[in-house]
């Protein structure tokens, strides 16, 4: 199936002038697929890594690609996926972490699942307002989003049992669609997902069902197998499980894209990711220091009884919250503890930021401090034991500040109106939403970053009647400071 998709890409290249002219008048359907945890080097250095990913490499060769995408801090899944569909930072869209801050455990491990938590319009809103049909598979922060017609949101109770399927049936739309898809009744059943890619295979079946029944103009999909493999075994090149998972994911992308292009021959396909990975050999548990300093009081069972300061892990970084933001004595005490820990390189702390600077760099709203770990370390939430806990085996993490090159994410775009081999250079993740809005021909005015230039500049056309509304082409607008040229990676798939 992946080779059929590559053949369709070649056919689209032949028909590009026809499709591009049409797109300038009416916009183009968009398939947006996120490969959670995909660092751009995995695609550009596929030969070096021994990866067989013909679909992704074909997209690089026949479309436009970014050297790297600078994502938002923290480099977590939920904030970055929300930025990809809104074009704004977590401070603006309101989703600043994956999990809900909950020192006492009242939320029972809840995450920021709900579409109503997004404070600004999304691509789904813009498409729906223009009369387009929308669909989404496992996109974060999408439960009950009113602008998604066909929706399987990311949501769970146990994340381990087949019974979670009943929960998905309740929150997915339209009612009855999921029950028709093979394997969805055991989507979260660990015994039905023996491999890291097994879960994504079921998601692929859902996406194909949505394409067939809903015929969406905008389809957003979140594939998670690569991320899972890297969390467990570390990033490439050390991880053979991640290697095979990415190869399987490449085949799934071919199947989905082939079906979407069969429905919409003029479609634009965008492959994105939310973050890369660091290898992790030790965790830093700041709360151990806070317990020792009397800032956290524990019950006899070792749970939190009360707290003055608490470190909330976001993977590679942590937000330090004060129970009373006005408690200057506790703030000064925490600052001194963090300064002492940072002076010892063995503790693995890279940076400590405070106040507004901390929030601008990914801390939770109202956080007193943001602590960013060095590569090789991640932040933990343990309340007892060693401050720095060495691991028996290497794992992987993200959630660091976006200043770590290893956290860079990906963008590859292909379709009529997109120049083959186009080089987008370094891209800000906030440019993805306005670029895809321009491709769709819809308005997303809250996304103020300029769209990327996906098409080679041509001589100005004859004047048109400005009073006549026109939908945008995939060209978008040039981006100040971003080099667009023939991609040095364009031959990578040959």
In short:
The protein is an alpha/beta fold and 494 residues long. The protein is built from 15 helices and 20 strands. It folds into 2 domains: 2-277 and 404-440, Alkaline Phosphatase, subunit A (3-Layer(aba) Sandwich), CATH 3.40.720.10; 279-395, Gyrase A, domain 2 (2-Layer Sandwich).
Structure characterization notes:
This protein is α/β, with parallel strands linked by helices and about 500 residues long. The chain has two domains: about 1-275 and about 405-440, Alkaline Phosphatase, subunit A (3-Layer(aba) Sandwich); about 280-395, Gyrase A, domain 2 (2-Layer Sandwich), CATH 3.30.1360. It contains 15 helices and 20 strands. The chain has helices spanning about 1-25, 40-45, 45-50, 55-60, 75-85, 90-95, 125-130, 165-170, 200-215, 225-235, 240-265, 285-290, 330-345, 355-360, 430-440; strands spanning about 30-35, 65, 70, 135, 150, 220-225, 270, 280-285, 295-300, 305, 310-315, 315-320, 350-355, 370-375, 375-380, 390-395, 410-415, 420-425, 425-430, 485. The strands form five sheets. A nine-stranded mixed sheet has the order 5-4-6-1-7-17-2-18-20, with helices on both faces. A hairpin with a 5-residue loop joins strand 9 and strand 10. Helix 1 (about 1-25) runs parallel beside helix 4 (about 55-60) and helix 1 (about 1-25) crosses helix 11 (about 240-265). The longest helix has 25 residues, at about 1-25. The model is unreliable at about 10-25, about 460-475 and about 475-485 (pLDDT under 50).
């Amino acid at each position: 199936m992946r080779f059929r998709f590559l053949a369709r890409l070649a056919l689209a290249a032949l028909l590009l002038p026809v499709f591009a002219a049409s797109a300038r008048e009416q916009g183009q359907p968009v398939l947006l697929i996120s490969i959670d945890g995909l660092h751009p080097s995995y695609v550009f250095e596929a030969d070096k890594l021994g990866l067989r990913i013909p679909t992704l490499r074909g997209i690089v060769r026949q479309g436009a690609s970014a050297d790297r995408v600078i994502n938002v801090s923290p480099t977590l899944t939920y904030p970055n996926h929300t930025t990809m569909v809104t074009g704004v930072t977590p401070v603006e869209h309101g989703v600043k972490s994956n999990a809900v801050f909950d020192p006492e455990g009242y939320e029972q491990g809840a995450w920021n699942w709900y579409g109503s938590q997004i404070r600004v319009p999304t691509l789904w809103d813009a498409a729906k307002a223009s009369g387009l049909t929308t669909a989404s598979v496992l996109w974060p922060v999408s439960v009950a989003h009113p602008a998604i017609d066909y929706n399987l949101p990311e949501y769970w109770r146990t994340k381990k049992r087949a019974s979670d399927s009943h929960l998905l049936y309740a929150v997915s739309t339209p009612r009855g669609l999921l029950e028709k898809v093979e394997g969805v009744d055991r989507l979260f059943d660990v015994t039905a997902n023996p491999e890291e890619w097994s879960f994504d295979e079921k998601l692929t079946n859902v996406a194909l069902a949505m394409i067939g029944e809903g015929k969406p103009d905008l389809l957003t999909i979140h594939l998670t197998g690569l991320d899972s493999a890297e969390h467990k075994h570390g990033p490439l090149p050390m991880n053979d499980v991640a290697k095979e998972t990415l190869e399987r994911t490449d085949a799934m992308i071919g199947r989905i894209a082939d079906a979407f292009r069969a429905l919409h021959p003029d479609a634009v396909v965008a492959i994105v990711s939310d973050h890369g990975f660091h290898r992790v050999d030790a965790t830093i548990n700041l709360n151990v220091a806070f317990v020792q300093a009397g800032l956290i009081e524990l019950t006899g069972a070792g749970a939190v009884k009360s707290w003055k300061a608490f470190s909330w892990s976001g993977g590679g970084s942590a937000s330090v919250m004060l129970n009373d933001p006005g408690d200057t004595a506790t703030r000064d005490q925490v600052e001194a503890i963090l300064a002492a820990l940072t002076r010892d390189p063995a503790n693995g702390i890279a940076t400590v930021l405070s106040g507004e600077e901390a929030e601008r760099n990914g801390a939770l709203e109202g956080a007193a401090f943001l602590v960013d770990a060095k590569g090789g370390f991640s932040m933990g939430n343990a309340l007892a034991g060693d401050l720095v806990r060495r691991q028996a085996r290497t794992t992987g993490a993200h959630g660091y500040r976006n200043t770590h090159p290893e956290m860079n994410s990906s963008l590859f775009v292909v379709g009529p109106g997109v120049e083959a081999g186009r080089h987008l250079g370094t891209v800000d993740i906030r440019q993805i939403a306005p670029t895809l809005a321009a491709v769709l021909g819809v308005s997303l005015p809250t996304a103020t970053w300029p769209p990327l230039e996906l098409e080679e500049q041509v001589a100005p056309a004859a004047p048109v009647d400005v009073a006549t509304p026109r939908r945008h082409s995939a060209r978008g607008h040039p981006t100040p400071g971003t080099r667009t040229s023939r991609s040095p990676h364009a031959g990578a798939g040959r």
